[in-house]
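REQUEST FORM: STRUCTURE PREDICTION
Request ID: SP-0412
Submitted by: Lab K.M.
Chain count: 1
Length (residues): 659
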Amino acid sequence: MSDLDQGVLSSWWAVFRRRWLASAAVFLIVFGLGATMVLTARPVYRADAKLRIGEPPPSPGVSAGTSIFGLMRLGGDPFANDLELLGSRTVIEGMVRDAVLNVKVTAPKGWHRDSLLSALSTGDSTPTASFEARWSAPDRIAVRQLSPRESVVGEFAAGAPAEFAGVRVVFKARKAGGPEKIALTTIPINEAVRRATGRVSFARTRRDANVVQLIATDSDPAIARTAVASTLTRFIELRTRIQKRESNQNIDSLRAVARQTQAELARAESGLEAMQREARLVNPDVQSRSFIERYTQVSASLEETRGLLRAIQSVMVQANTGETPGERWSKLLAYPAFRENEAMGQMLTQLTGLERQRSLFANRRTEQNLEYKVVLDQIAYIDRSLSALATDMQATLAEGIQRQEALLKEMDVTLAGIPSQTIDLARRQRAARILSEVVVLTEQRLRQEELRQVLTFANIQVIDPTALRWKPIWPRNKVGLLVAWMLAGLSALLTMVATERADRRLRRAVDVMRITGAPVLGVAVRGKAGVRFSANELSAVVQHASANGRGPMRIMVAPVGVARASELIAVLRSALPQPVAAGGLGYGGAEVVEAASIIDFASASAVSASQVPITMVVEAGSTTTDELARATALVQQAGGRIGGTIVVGTARAAGDVWA
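STATUS: Completed
RESULT:
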C-alpha cells in the first residue's frame, strides 16, 4: 500500500474516531425507525387480472380502399382508445361505488371490513365526517359522530342495518379478541374519485400484444380484489355501451343518408326522363351518327339539285343562240338526272333522230318540201316541249332547293344543339348513376351496420380472472430490514461527513500553516504530568523561535482563543541555555515572554511592539479556524511577524496534527 493510500486511510480513521458516537446514534435511530416501520406495517395485498382486448367488430366503408363514411367512426388506435377507457372517470366512479371507497374503516392490524361488517354501501351524497363505532355489548354497537361536530348517532343491533350520513352498514357481532371500537371516515364521492385515480394500474404486457394486466394494492384484501373486478366489469360495460351507441348513431345517419339519396335519385331520374323526351335523345351516339349521315345526304342532294338548276339555266340562256336544238338540248345528257328521266330521254332521242333527218333533207330538198317541213315542225314541237319541260323542271328544282336549304338550316340548328344536349344528357346520366351507386352502397353499409349491431360486443377475453396473491406483497421483513440497515449506514456516513465538515476546530498542521503562512514549530502533548515535547521538537522550537539564533534569545509566546500557554512557557524556559560570563561563548539575556491572548488590535499591537517574531499557541481540537484567522489578521495589521505556531493537545489529537 502506498503512502498516499495510508494517509487517506489514516485520515478517515481519525474522522471515525472523532465522529463515531454521533454516527452511531444516527445509525441506531434510523435503523430503529426503519425496523419499526417494517415490523409494525400493515400487510399490503395485491390483486390482479389479465385480459385480452380484441378488435372491435368490423365496420367497412364504401369500398375496400377508401371510405367516405370514415368520419362516422371515432379515429385513433383502437387499443389506445380502450386504455383511455380503462382510466376514464366513468370507470373510476363505478369502481368507487362498487368498492365503497368513499368510506374508510380504520381498525387494528389484522382486522378488515369483511371481518367487522356484513354489508356496507353508500349513496353519492356522503359528507366529510368521521364516526366511532363501539361494541357496548357483543351484539350491540353504539355509533357516535366525532366531526365536524360531536353528536350521538344511535345504538344498533348486530345484523341490523344502520343508516347515517348517507352510509348503510350492517355490523357483525363482536368476535373473540376483536376490537372494541373502530373508526369510519366518509368523504364526498368526487373526492373519493380523485383519490382513487391511479389506484388500479394497468399496462400492456408486450408492445405487440393486446393483453392488459390490471393491478391493485391495498391493506384490505377485499378492497384490492373488488377494485380490480369492478374496473374490469365497468370497463366492459362502458366499452359495450359506447360501441352500441356508436352503431345506433351510424344506423340512424345511414338511414337518413339513404332516404335523402333516394329522393335525390328520384328527382334526377325524373329530370333525365323529361330531358330525353324533350330533346328526343335515346342513344346519343347512334342518333348523332344517323343525323350526320342524313345531313350529308341532304347537303349532297342540295348540291346536285343546284347543279341541275345551273345546267338548265345554262341551256335556257343558250336557247336563242344560233345552235340547233339538238346540240342545245343534248348537253343535258351529261347530267344523270336528265339522262335517267324517261320522258326527256325519249324526247332527246327523237330530237336527235329528227336532227339527222333534217341534215339529210337539207342537202337534197328545199325548205318548201313537205317532208322537210314536217321534220322541222316536229323539231320545233320537241324544242318547245323541251323548253316547257325545262322551265317546269327549273321551277321544280328551284322549289326543291328552297326546301332543302330550309331543311339544312333546321338541321344546322339541331346540329349546333347536339353537343350541349349530349353533355347535358351525359351529366344527368352521370348524376343518376352516382346517386344510384351511393344508394346501393349506403344500403349495403346499412345492412352491414345492422349486422354489426346484431353481433356480440363481448370481444374481451379474460385470460386471468381477478385473484389475490397468495401472500401479502409488503412488508418483506428481510428486505425491509436490509433496506433500513443500508439507509441507516448511509445516514451515519453522511452524519460523519457533515459533522466533520461543519466542525471549524483546528486539528491538522496543514490548516494552521494555510491560515498563518508560518510553519508549525512543534506539537506539545498534554498529559497527566503536564505538557511535554519530544527532545528534537523542543530543541527545534527553541532555536527557531529565537530569530534563527541571532541576537538575544527571546521567545514571544502568544496564545490564541482558549489555548493556555503557562505550562508550555515553563517547558520552554527549562530548555533555554544558561547565561555565560561576559566575553564568553553562548547567549546572554535568554528569556521566554508570555504575551496576552490576541483578542483585539490592542493586544496584537502590544505583542508586535517588541519586534520579535511571535510564536502563536493553539489548542488542537479547541481553537477554531476563525479565531486563528482573526488573530493572524490582527498581528499583520499591527505590523508584527509570526515566526511559527505551537500546537498543544492530547496524545490522540497530537497524533492527527501531522496527518
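NOTES: The longest helix spans residues 370-454.
Reviewed by: T.R.
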